[in-house]
Structure formats: structure tokens, C-alpha cells
Amino acid sequence: MTVVEVSVTGAPRRGVLSRVVSRLGNGVVQVGLALVALFWLVPVFGLLIASLRDEASNTASGWWTIFTAPTSLTLSNYADLVGNSTVLRSFLNTVYIAVPSTVLVVVISALAAYGLAWIEFPGRLWLTTLVVGLLVMPIQVALIPVAKLFGSLGLFGTITGVVLFHVAFGLPFAIFLLRNFFAGIPRDLVEAARMDGAREWVIFRRVVLPIAKPAIASLTIFQFLWVWNDLLVALVFADQDSAPITVALRAQLRQFGTNIDLLSTGAFLSMIVPLAVFLAFQRYFVQGVLAGSTK
Amino acid sequence: MAEVVLSGLGKVYVDGTRAVADLDLEIRDGEFLVLVGPSGCGKTTALRMIAGLESVSEGSIRIGPQVVNEVPSRDRDVAMVFQSYALYPHLNVYDNIAFGLTLRKLPKKEIDRRVREVAEVLELHEHLERKPRNLSGGQRQRVAMGRAIVRAPQAFLMDEPLSNLDAKLRVQMRAQIARIQRDLGVTTVYVTHDQTEAMTLGDRVAVMKRGVLQQVGPPQELYDRPVNLFVAGFIGSPGMNLVTARLDRDDDGHHWVTVGSDALLLPESVLLARPALAGYAGRDVVLGIRPEDMEDAALADAQEGSILHSVADLVEAMGSDVLVHFPVDAAPVVTDDTKALAEDDGTADLPKGSGVVLVGRFSPRTHIYEGQPVAAWVDTSRLHFFDPDTGLSVWTTSGELE
Ligand SMILES: Nc1ncnc2c1ncn2[C@@H]1O[C@H](COP(=O)(O)OP(=O)(O)OP(=O)(O)O)[C@@H](O)[C@H]1O
Ligand SMILES: [Mg+2]
Question: Strands across the sheet with B307-311, in order?
């Protein structure tokens, strides 16, 4: 988690009272943020501890007892998990599904969004409206027709099928998000590049994409999280061999009921990857990328 | 470097707005042409058509030997300086300037040499590694200039490049732009709505009103011989005083023009320069007097027949001179042109009293105070006359230049 620092520089000449108020305000904000962070961190921490305790101690007591009666923590659950071929394969399946689904959506939507935002062609407005319209289409109505279609195409139960479905349903939002961001880039900037001799592709690669980094980073994280955590689509379209970890963990749950050690380990693994992705991209969330370009 | 020729150029936007109409303009090789006019008169539109950023509705644009109507911007080999500067925010100064050259696949060494040379000229060499957000307004402006200069294009197009700078910087940069353009000899079209910029920078100035070219010529010519009320009022600051006046011919054959309760005697030279004026005897004309063609009568060795009497309304000391506002009892001029000028001044909505307030630019040695009587001497040899119906300057016939 990131710590938000509220800076109080640049307030040298204000009255004492207003300074006190602003200090207090900052304090309140920081306490609030700490509380929110705590709320999120406690379960995560609990999950981590549970995944590090063996089955017996997990069934005997809650994870918080380690504070009063520290038991020996163990990595054996993780060893078991790696030994468990179903869970391990499902973990890899999740990677095989989530990575292409994210990459394809980001690449396709960035190209489409550039076209919709900056290239003039007949029907552009209609196409944009259509994309926005698709946003309201719920996934559920498409499950059965698409399942039928996949069946006849031989895609049912394959990773490719799951990926295609995720891409198709990820695109409208992705295009919408990026188009709006691209359209917000000052027109002068795009035109300056045109005057400088750039073709559309060069403008896209060398002007729009670098400026749109924060939007692209957000989209990447959203899409990755969405696909990584998806259960519904995978339940419908994946079979035993192509099932991602969400499906596999659920199956484990039914099988053993109380195997909290394996479940918490799997869940923790499944959670830590998106977190890593988030941390990897968060440095692109810099505000004010456009600062200084115009005016 | 090349000439830029606009023939019958017109632009109608998709929503039906006509922004430019039948614009004929020949910008010579190496010339600095300033396009000037009030807000919304179509200057930017015309410039963007030359740049290829806006499609051409009518007529043609020729750059050098080639008609470029259908040529995309990137192949026109013209460079543009935007009002907003439009610097690439993610690139440092060096890369901003080099951007156009790298796209042309020039050797790295050549690019480096040219970028550094331009940076030197614009005094940016110490800031090459900085991002635009860490530059001052003036530095950003210079980067924008550098980006255009470094390409050595056929022509520069500039759309109000100085309007975001404070007054002092603007004067500095104005001089720098003039110097650079003269040194490089690149054909330049410069858009502004600041008539001071237009006068100081332009080899020639083209004045536009509502999409229509009014007059094009060297600055002094526009100042001395405006073709109509609009150009007369637009060029010069403060603007030319315009009043409705009556022209009469007395029994001795002298021509007098009556402004309120005063009459001014026209010298022979005025009638020689404007033969058509005699035809207005016994009728109303629009009289134009530039503020700088007036002086405190006490300081001017004034004769009767060249003095206007009134009471000072407002006295503004400018240091180098004093602006004296005084009302005269004459009808204001209301034509299409004066309305357009008032819109530009932002004075269109002000309530109109009866009569007109004239502004005279007097020497600072004057001792006139607000509320005191004024006797303003008028340089009658420099009076301007316009037809009250057409608004055209009165010269030989219906206002045409001979
Ligand atoms: N994309 C557009 N669609 C429709 N009308 C437009 C468009 N761009 C400009 N106009 C109109 O065309 C006319 C000329 O605009 P233009 O921007 O060329 O004026 P300008 O002389 O540059 O004014 P300013 O000094 O304010 O920049 C204006 O009436 C404007 O409202
Ligand atoms: Mg403009």
C-alpha cells in the first residue's frame, strides 16, 4: 500500500488559527487513511498467517492467536500447493488467461481509441456511440449464445475461448476510457506533430502513448484484476484442464470443506500477483503529465 | 524558402459558418506578412488552411511551384508556431526541437549540430535537458520557435505566438522574431490581433474583417492611406477619431469642414490629393483625425480655421505624451465598419451619449486639466475623409486608390 503524504509546505504567512485548522485537517485525513489501510491490511495479513500455519493449528485456533501464543510458522502449505498439480496448473492457467486478455485489450483499445479520437472518417461519431452503447451490455446475456458459438467452433473449454470472451467484453470499456483520455490531449499537440512531419502511427507512438501512460497503466491494472479474479466466465467456458485458480479453489472448497490451509495458501498466491502488478505500474500514476506543454 | 500564394481562398465550416471568403494574397519569397484583424475574423482559419490543418473549401493555396490543397501537412514543409506553444510534454527541450528532424531521418550528428546551433541563437543551450513544465513562459515560447526554425522550412506560420507573454517579454520576443526572420529570410505569415505587433513586424500587413480581406500593404501605407473606415479605425493606437462633419465650399472657393461649432479650413493639398472630395461639398462626410495629428493649440502656433474648442473630459498623462479626451457636438459615425470596430474594442454595448468624444495626443508640456477648456489644433493637411454610406476612403472617385 502507498502512504499518501499531505504536504504542508508553502503556508508560511497564514494565521496561527488557520494553520492549526489545516494541521488538524491533515491529521484527520491521515488518521482516516490509516484506518482504511488497516481495514484492508488486517484480512490480508490474516490470510498470510493462515497460509503459513499447518492444518491442525488452523482448525484449533484463529490466526490472531499467534500474537499470544506464537506457534511455529511453516512453509509446508506452499510446498503442498506446488505438489498439488491441479492447483498449480490452475495457477498457470490463470496466467495464460490473464496476460493475453490484458495485452490484447490494451493494444487493441489503444489503437481504436486513437482512431476514434484523432482520425477523421465518416461514421466516426456513430462508431463511438456504438462502443459506448456496448458498455451497458451485461455479460450474462451473452454467456449462452457465445457458449453455443464456441461449441460449434471448437473453442469451448479452451483457454483461447476464455481469452476471446474476456477481450470482447473488456474492449468497450477500455476503448471508452482511452478515447476520452486521448481526446483530452490538446489538439495543438497532435497538430504540432503533424506539422513536424509525423504520420498517424508516429503521432500515436511518440506523442499520444507517452502522454497517455497513466491512463494505459490504469487500464492495464483494471483489466488484469478483472480477468485474474473472474470466476463467472471461467466457470462457463473453461473445462477441467483450462480452469483458472478461482475455479480450482472453489472446487477444492467443495471437496474438503475445511481445508483452510490449502485454500488460504492458494488465495494468498492468487492475490499477491495482482498486487505485484499494481505496484509495478503505480509509478506511472503521475499526475500532471501534460504540465508545461501548452501555455 | 518559397512564395505562398492564396487565390480565391474560402472556408465554410461544416456547421455552415463562413470563416474566410475569397482571399487573394501573394506572400513573396522571404516576406514577413502579418495577418491582422479583430477576433473571429478568420485569421486563424486562413493560417490553418495554409498549414494543411483545415481543409480548403474554395480556391487554392500554392507554396512555391506546387498547389498544396490536397497535400497533407507533413508534406508541405512549413512550420507552425502555436499560440499555446504545443510543446511535447514528455520530451526535454533538446528532443522537442529535434523531433521534426528525427522524423526526417537525418544523421544524428547533423541533428545534433542543428539543434545546438538553434538553441544557441535562442539562448536555450543551458536548458536542453529540461522538460517543458520546468521552463518559464518565455523559454517555452523560444522552444516553440526553435522547433520551427531548426527545420529550415519553406515558410513559418505563427498564430499569435506572443499573446501568452507579459508585456515586457512580448516586446523582447517581438524584436527577436523580427531579427531571426530577417537573418533566415524565411517567408513568414504571422497572425495577430495586436495592431502594434502588426505594424512593427510586418513587411506588409493584411487587414481582415469578418473573413474578408480589407487592405494589404506596408504598415505606413495602411496608416497613411487606409482604404476604408475599418482599416482607418483598426490601425493606430489610440484609434483614429471619426465624426460626421459637413463639407462646404465658400464663395472664395475654399473648402471648410464643420465639426460641431468649429470649422476647419482644408488646405489645397488635401483637395489635390483627394480630387473626389470636392464632389461632397454641401453634404456630410466622415471626417477622420488621428490623435497624433492634434496638439494643444497653445503650443502649436495655431491659426483660426484649424482649431477645435471644447472642454477636457479626461486627461491621461502617458509620460511621453498626454491623451486629452474632449467632446464635440457632432454626430457619431455609425456604419458597419464602426460597429465591427466597437465590437473589437468591447465598447459596442456602452451607452452612446449624443455627440462624440475625440482623443488628442498632446505634448507633455501642455497645461490642460480635466474640466478646463481645450483648444485643439488640428493638422488639417493630414485629415482623412470617408463616404458616410459606403465607408470607403474618398480619393479620386468612389474611394478607390488611383
Ligand atoms: N471548427 C469550427 N467550426 C465552426 N466554426 C468555426 C470553427 N473554427 C472557427 N470557426 C468560426 O470561424 C470564424 C473565424 O474563426 P478564427 O478562429 O479563424 O478567427 P480568428 O481571426 O483567428 O480569431 P481570434 O483572433 O479570436 O483567434 C469565427 O466566427 C469562428 O467562430
Ligand atoms: Mg485565432
Answer: B294-296, B373-378, B307-311
Best of B50, B95, B127, B133 to disrupt the A interface (most A CBs within 10 Å) is B133
- Residue B43 Cβ inside 6 Å of ligand 1? The answer reads yes
Window A:180-239, CB contacts with B under 8 Å: 186, 188-189, 191-199, 202, 206-207, 210-211
Assign A289 a pLDDT band (cuts: 50, 70, 90).
low
What residue segments make up the domains of chain A, in order of their start? 14-76, 84-291
Torsions phi, psi for A43 (to 5 deg): -65, -35
Instruction: Give residue-wise pLDDT tens across range B127-170.
Output: 999 999 999 999 999 999 999 999 999 999 999 999 999 989 99
Nearest to B38 by CA among B170, B247, B256, B214: B214
**Closest-CA residue of chain A to B148:** A196
Q: Rounded to the nearest 5 degrees, what angle is found at the Cα of A221, between the Cα atoms of A155 and A94?
A: 35
pLDDT of residue A20: 74
Grouping H, G, I as helix, E, B as strand and the rest as coil, residue B345 is helix
Domains of chain B: 4-230 (3.40.50.300), 239-386 (no CATH)
CA torsion through residues B284, B290, B291, B296, sign: negative
pTM for the model stands at: 0.83
Q: Which CATH superfamily is domain A84-291 in?
A: MetI-like (1.10.3720.10)
Quick: pLDDT tens for A80-137.
877 878 888 898 999 999 999 999 999 999 999 999 999 989 999 999 999 989 988 8
**Grid coordinates belonging to B362:** 498632446
The alpha carbon of residue B137 is apart from the nearest alpha carbon of chain A, in Å, by 7
